[in-house]
Amino acid sequence: MNVKQEHLKETNPEHEILDILKNRWSPRAFSDKKITEKEVKILLEAGRWAPSAFNVQPWRIIWGIKGTETYDRLYNCLDEFNQSWADNAQVLMAGAFKKTKEGDKENFHALHDLGLFMANVYTQAHSMGIATHQMAGIDFKKAQKEFKIPEDFHVATGIALGYYGGDASVLPEDLQEKENKQKRERKPQSEFAFNGNFQNKN
């Protein structure tokens, strides 16, 4: 793993898990170290081998490296909040999925499969010292029009990527506290995993 200890957060899992899963987190401030096209292709290759229902691989990814027209077009599709910090990312992506499968039947699993694709990307990225931050705040209709994406696809997320080690002071003041928070937290398993009937624990 190529992430320096000082760039990691305090994470306390209930059970021992792989370091690459334990140590991954989603910063908003990234190093100014450039990400190359070859590195992007490695990340996409990791995603390519994710599982999908019926192996239809419904994911579609638009990507752009900082300094290119595609990067700027992706940035312009983000909402105002995400634009306030995402311009320090070295790569921007949009993740979309095909809503139907063979015979125009609705693919209820496509969004899940896009998530699996991105989980592979995240894991590969972290192993390379690259951080990732997914964003719900992307104008999917604007992105669909901007990139000429057919109506049979839905743009689900934006993704910002850059090397760990960014300076939080480049962020808007209200985000600096979140960035500098050292302890990561998650709901305990007892709130979401049930060996028996479902329990409504919000």
From TrEMBL:
Residues 176-202 are annotated as: Disordered. The keyword Electron transport does not apply. The keyword Oxidoreductase applies. Pfam families: Nitroreductase. Residues 21-66, 79-163 form the Nitroreductase domain. Transmembrane segments: none annotated. Keywords: Oxidoreductase. It comes from the Bacteria. Belongs to the nitroreductase family. This is Nitroreductase family protein. The lineage of its organism: Bacteria, Pseudomonadati, Bacteroidota, Flavobacteriia, Flavobacteriales.
